[in-house]
């Protein structure tokens, strides 16, 4: 079975549900006390809004709601897509990268953040936020909160600061692999968990054999997933090519 297709992603979600996991949004995690097994399902929308809408529709068809964090760069911020994703019942919120976009000027960055949040709030209340890693940038976007407080903007939680990843096992598809730390520049967390994942089929095996913690967060970037074909092939090549640079950045600790 080809990895990182829409088909295998839906099978993964169904595997979690078969083992008694409840799939919830980031907002739900912060607002509603959760008991038992949960999967906090999150999508960082870095590229390809059309992929995002397809994924949102597929989740809706199987009764799953999740969180979509949208960047506001022109190639990603498509109002028709954001509106439709929200109308499908998903949480829509801001994938911020303001320090990078204004080249490290904190005063400009907070004004940019305010505007970005306003753009997303045209469609949803957007009460949680998630940092975009900007792996090729020398600025770490979450450093914005060393000078400002996101809770002053009606934010109830940020994925970088308000989730205990010693309690919640974080799983990201960064670099065309699950928790591929060798190419994760900033898409990583401090955690006690050390559970290697070979591929999506292996992840499903771990789920179905009850080898995962009761609380899990999955970050599945919509731009990772395609139906098999030409676009699938070229996207895989693109991601693998970027991994070469990311591996150097991580190995030699070039960025903070």
Describe the structure.
- Strands 1, 2, 3, 4, 5, 6, 7 and 8 form an eight-stranded parallel beta sheet that branches.
- The chain is of the alpha/beta class and 256 residues long.
- The mean pLDDT is 95.
- Helix 1 (6-18) runs parallel beside helix 7 and helix 3 runs parallel beside helix 4.
- Helix content is 36%, strand content 14%.
- The protein is built from eight helices and eight strands, in the order H-E-H-E-H-E-H-E-H-H-E-E-E-H-E-H.
- It has helices at 6-18, 26-31, 49-61, 79-87, 98-101, 106-120, 200-208, 230-251; strands at residues 22-24, 38-45, 67-70, 91-96, 128-131, 157-158, 169-172, 215-219.
- The radius of gyration is 17 Å and the shape is globular.
- The low-pLDDT segments are none
User: Assembly type of the shown chains?
Assistant: single chain
Strand content: 5-15%
Order of helical and strand elements = HEHEHEHEHHEEEHEH
Distance between the termini: 37 Å
DSSP helix fraction: 25-40%
The outline comes out as: globular
Please count the helical segments: 8
Radius of gyration: 17 Å
Structural class: alpha/beta
Give the rounded overall mean pLDDT. 95
Number of strands: 8
Main beta sheet: strand number and arrangement? 8 strands, parallel
What's a quick, concise take on this entry?
With about 260 residues, this protein is of the alpha/beta class.
């Amino acid at each position: 079975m080809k990895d990182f297709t829409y088909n295998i992603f839906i099978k993964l979600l169904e595997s979690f549900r078969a083992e008694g996991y409840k799939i919830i949004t980031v907002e739900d995690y912060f607002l509603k006390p959760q008991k038992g097994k949960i999967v906090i399902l999150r999508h960082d929308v870095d590229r390809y809004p059309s992929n995002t809408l397809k994924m949102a529709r597929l989740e809706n068809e199987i009764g799953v709601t999740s969180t979509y964090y949208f960047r506001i760069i022109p190639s990603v911020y498509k109002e028709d897509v954001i509106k439709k994703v929200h109308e499908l019942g998903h949480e829509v919120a801001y994938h911020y990268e303001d320090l990078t976009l204004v080249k490290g000027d904190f005063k400009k960055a907070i004004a940019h953040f305010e505007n970005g949040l306003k753009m997303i709030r045209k469609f949803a209340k957007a009460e949680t936020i998630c940092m975009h890693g900007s792996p090729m940038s020398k600025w770490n976007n979450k450093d914005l909160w060393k000078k400002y407080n996101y809770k002053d903007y009606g934010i109830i939680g940020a994925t970088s600061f308000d989730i205990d990843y010693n309690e919640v096992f974080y799983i990201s598809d960064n670099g065309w692999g699950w928790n591929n730390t060798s190419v994760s520049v900033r898409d990583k967390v401090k955690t006690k968990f050390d559970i290697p994942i070979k591929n999506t089929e292996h992840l499903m095996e771990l789920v179905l054999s009850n080898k995962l913690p009761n609380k899990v967060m999955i970050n599945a970037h919509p731009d990772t997933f395609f139906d098999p074909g030409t676009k699938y092939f070229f996207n895989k090549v693109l991601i693998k090519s970027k991994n070469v640079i990311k591996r150097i950045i991580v190995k030699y600790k070039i960025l903070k």
